[in-house]
Amino acid sequence: MEDIRDARGFKGFVERLTLGITRVLEGLPGVTDVRFVEREPVERRCLMSWEHRNDCELPEDLRDFYLTTDGFTLTWCTKLESEAVPLGSMVINSLAKLLPLSQSAVFSLPNMPTLSDLDSQEEPEESDDPPGVPHFGERSRIFELDPCGGNGKVCLVYRNCSQDREAQDSEVWFLDRALYWHYISSSFTAYYRLMITHLGLPEWQYNFTPYGPSPQAKQWACLYRPLTAHGDAHVDSNGDPIVNRLDLSRAFRGKVKPLAPKKKSPAQPGGGGGTPKAHGGSARLSGTRR
């Protein structure tokens, strides 16, 4: 990635770095004001300093990314009644903002709980969390890659860390606003491609959660990503897709009057006395005809 700038001009550099998504966006109906922020590459000594300071080894693909550009910002707008409204946003924090997830107290008040207080020292035997999720304590080292516009945080996560050893294996996870973790990818490159593929649409990271994006975000996805938006199946804890099921018998209960059951004729006394009556009647009728 380091030789991209020298191979072609700025336009060619943007084309390769964004995987051609700028041309795709400019060709979509209603899309306007596509902006890419050019940034200088990070020096190698700065990368080494970050790794030494945080006792973590950056993955090779993320290191190459920072050697190409110090972060990534691409935004675009859509027209609503001739007015440009900001919609898409693709962000990768600069190296200076690749900071550990804040461990400060909530509202910075004394004696208030911190994120690490959400983790117990021992794993409970029965937990709703899937196995292997990141922890806010010392067992994981978490760095913010994308603030997601306040809808959560995409983080570079090193799990199962120890204080006497440099962390090496990293993954990309999404932390939603309820502070639940959701796995996205095993590498930065895979996440980067997902970000480009989803066009930076609002709340696209929630496609990797059991509940999915908000209805408004789904509408935007259906407008600009119709083929893939309908294919994003959200699965609940039982493995079943989460869909809206309408029980007509309950939804319209009381709206339609049920049919009255047919009244049964009272039983004849004498145990089968009705049959001789029928035969007698038939005999009288036959006699009249004669």
Description:
With 290 residues, the protein is an alpha+beta fold. It has helices at 4-7, 10-17, 21-26, 44-54, 60-68, 188-197, 215-224, 226-229, 248-251, 274-289, and strands at 31-36, 72-80, 83-92, 141-146, 153-158, 171-175, 181-185. The strands form two sheets. The protein has a four-stranded antiparallel β-sheet with strand order 4-5-6-7. Strands 1-2-3 form a three-stranded antiparallel β-sheet. The radius of gyration is 33 Å and the shape is flat. The termini are far apart.
Key terms for this structure?
single chain; four-stranded antiparallel sheet; alpha+beta; 10 helices; 290 residues
Write the layout of secondary structure elements.
Elements: H1 4-7, H2 10-17, H3 21-26, E1 31-36, H4 44-54, H5 60-68, E2 72-80, E3 83-92, E4 141-146, E5 153-158, E6 171-175, E7 181-185, H6 188-197, H7 215-224, H8 226-229, H9 248-251, H10 274-289
Antiparallel strand pairs: 1-2, 2-3, 4-5, 5-6, 6-7
